[in-house]
């Protein structure tokens, strides 16, 4: 942790005293630590303790009231890592909802770097469905949450809820630090989800893409230092930390955004399932049944191949990655798409297997490169696959 800057958020829990040891351990490892406390935390340990040990003034609601600078933004930007220890149920709930009604929460909301949350609370609070939901939300948002330890609680009985020991927190921090920043300075455009093509004002044609792969890619790229813009077609997933999401609905919306943004980025990861066809006519009014048992015929026209369209204008220093969803003749189809779309890579996805296809959290892909590269990943989480893809396509590695 040598030379790293850590913003430590101390919140209202009896375990606040352990944050003092954590601060000491971080300093021993060479890190510079600044502390922000919630009002409730100051009732367990005084700000003066942390100020004396950290060598920096401590930000609290009371101290912020006397400052002329925007102290919370400053502290949010200063820290490379953001550690909440102990994290009370209240802080977890509020930060999961994006609430910023204290200087600690405002700082945390403004912070962009990797976040580590170390809960400490009564076992009933930890088990409560509301807390479970909030923890899931934080994890989905890309924050790392340590499980509390099982042991003697302040209430006098043993249960799950004790804050992880400072040594355990240090190990987690060091792992977090191990995250390579190999995409720093690069801007990636990611597309995710499935487009909708209108039939009439209430009906549309779409596909079964969940958007999970695209969101996993956007999240992993952001964690690895990239600036990420995500064109999101009808996806119901939480926004990954640090990622700019632009919602799109139809293939035409996606085309407009792609044409505008592609020239400005270093790479495109085209994970969206674009509808190949759209109705020739979109009915102005809702289509009505006219007779019992009638048959109707809908006529479709082709949408442009968006990947092909933008890849045709690819600069040599841009990397373009397409995704091929196939149910049969996988390899042959993937290689054909690689050439036809002028992509640098095609990530082949076998969607005939429900265990690893649409809406699943797991996947297995084969990556084909225009340079002859070929590699099949094991069946693993979409997050792990995303990391794998980002390693393979990084121009620095070639
Ligand atoms: N794609 C696109 N525009 C389209 C169709 C697909 O940009 N109109 C992109 C997808 O985002 C994906 C890649 O092309 O990155 C392959 O998509 P896929 O649906 O597997 O292939 P298609 O080209 O649509 O071919 P087919 O449906 O015949 O398999």
Automatic annotation (TrEMBL):
Record InterPro entries: CoaB-like_sf, CoaBC, DNA/pantothenate-metab_flavo_C, Flavin_trans-like, Flavoprotein
Domain Flavoprotein as annotated: residue spans: 5-173
Gene3D superfamilies for this protein: CoaB-like, Flavin prenyltransferase-like
Phosphopantothenoylcysteine decarboxylase: annotated segments: 1-187
Catalytic activity reported: N-[(R)-4-phosphopantothenoyl]-L-cysteine + H(+) = (R)-4'-phosphopantetheine + CO2; (R)-4'-phosphopantothenate + L-cysteine + CTP = N-[(R)-4-phosphopantothenoyl]-L-cysteine + CMP + diphosphate + H(+)
Segments for region (Phosphopantothenate--cysteine ligase): 188-398
Coiled-coil spans in chain: none
Keywords: Decarboxylase, Flavoprotein, FMN, Ligase, Lyase, Magnesium, Metal-binding, Multifunctional enzyme
Cofactor mode of binding and number, as noted: Binds 1 FMN per subunit.
One term of GO molecular function: phosphopantothenoylcysteine decarboxylase activity
Function text: Catalyzes two sequential steps in the biosynthesis of coenzyme A. In the first step cysteine is conjugated to 4'-phosphopantothenate to form 4-phosphopantothenoylcysteine. In the second step the latter compound is decarboxylated to form 4'-phosphopantotheine. Catalyzes two steps in the biosynthesis of coenzyme A. In the first step cysteine is conjugated to 4'-phosphopantothenate to form 4-phosphopantothenoylcysteine, in the latter compound is decarboxylated to form 4'-phosphopantotheine.
Record protein name field: Coenzyme A biosynthesis bifunctional protein CoaBC
Source organism of this protein record: Fructilactobacillus myrtifloralis
Organism lineage string: Bacteria, Bacillati, Bacillota, Bacilli, Lactobacillales
Gene name in the database record: coaBC
